[in-house]
Amino acid sequence: MDGYSDSAFRRVCRMVNPEIITVTEFTSADGLSYGAERLKKKLWFHPSETPVIAQIFGKNTETFINATKVCEDMGFAGIDINMGCPSKRVVKSEHGVALRRDPELAFRLIEAVATNTSLPVSVKTRLGWNDASDLIEFGKGAEAAGANMLCVHARTYKEPYNVPAQWEHLYALKSALNIPVLGNGGLESLDEAYEKIQNLDGALIGQASFGNPWVFSKEGTPPMSERLPIIRAHAKFLIEHKGVVVGCREIRKHLLQYFKGFTGAKAFRKQVTAVSSIEEIDALLLAVENEPVFS
Q1: Which band of pLDDT confidence, cut at 50, 70 and 90, is reported for residue 60?
Q2: How far is it, in rounded angstroms, from Cα 16 to Cα 190?
Q3: Domain count, the chain
Q4: Is the pTM of this model over 0.90?
Q5: Is residue 194 located within the same domain as residue 243?
C-alpha cells in the first residue's frame, strides 16, 4: 500500500499481532536496479518486522533481476511482484495490473525473478482487466513460470472499490493450482478474513488497516485510551527513521485516520495537521485522552 505500509506502520501492525507477515510499499524495480538510495530507504525494515516481503513493480526483466538481488542483500524473506495496482499513473506506464493485458511479458518477468533468487516469489494481481475469464489461465501460467504463491484482489481493474469483492473466483482458482493462493478485497476484520479463506491458504487485509492496525487483533479494537500508546509508537518510529520534518508531516494523515469517526474529532483537525514535533504529538494525544468523546 504505497504511502502507508512503510516500516513504521508495519511495526505497529506487528505490535498489535506479532503473527502477521507484512509486505513493503510497492517499489520500482527500475529505481532499485539503478541504485536509487531513496528507494532503498523506502524499502528499509526494522529487525522486529522479520519476516517481511519486498514488493516490486516494473516491466523490464533485467531491472527485475537486479532489483531482486538488492532485496536479497537487504535480507527480505520473499519477493512479491505487483501485477495488480490499478493506479492510472502506474497503468499508463504499463506496470501493475496493465501486465494482465500482456500475460507473456508477465510470465517472463516472473521467470526472470524466480530463476535468479532462492527466495520465494509471489505475484499480487486482480481478477482480471474487465472480468475474471482469464484468471485461471493466468494463474497456471504464473505457476509454470515459477511463482510460489498468488495473492489476488477479488475485483477487476474496471471495478471500483465500492463494488463487492467476488471471492468465488478465488476459490475456483485455488482448485486449479498447486501453489498457495491468498485472497484480498473488502475485508474489514480478522474474523471476516478467516470466514472468507475457505479453501484458500490465507488472506490479506489492506485498506481496512488505515488508522486501524487493530484490524489484525484477535481481541478486536480497544478503547481509545488503549490505542494511544500504539499511535505514539507509530509517530516515534516515523520520526526516528525519516527525521522530524518528514516524520511529522507523514504522521498527520495517519492521525486523521486514527481519530476518524469519533464525535468531536473535527475539533482536533487543525492541531493534527500542524504537528511538527514529538512533543506536540504528545500534547495532542494527552488532549485526546482527556476528551470524553474519545473514551
Answers
A1: very high
A2: 12
A3: 2
A4: yes
A5: no
